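Figure 2 data, in text form.
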Amino acid sequence: MKSIKLWAGILGIVIAGYILLISGYAAAWNVLTMSGHINGFIGIVIAGLLMAGSIVRIGMRKAEDDSGSIISLVLFAIAAAIAFAITPVYRYMQPWAMICLAMGILSVLMIMWKNTRAEK
């Protein structure tokens, strides 16, 4: 389970870095052209939440309780909610929302798996 959390956290950091790169470019373009779009800034927030959740997942993977998984679940859920809310306006953020949702589901599965192993 610790290795799953480690690899999922590394994958989340890599994906968050990619989103941050794209969103940083979009935010800079929006500011320079004064277009009034907020997609770059929303993407930066989503990437920050995804990266924070992934870092918590890696940092708390050896914890005895479920606090790391719960914290990362909350961060991924907030990121997914923001991404799903902005998806009708900016369609390209839908895969990001799905990634955040998948990371949140993985956190729930880790909590459930740890609780079932503790009961045995």
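Caption note: Residues 69 and 110 are 7 Å apart (CA to CA).
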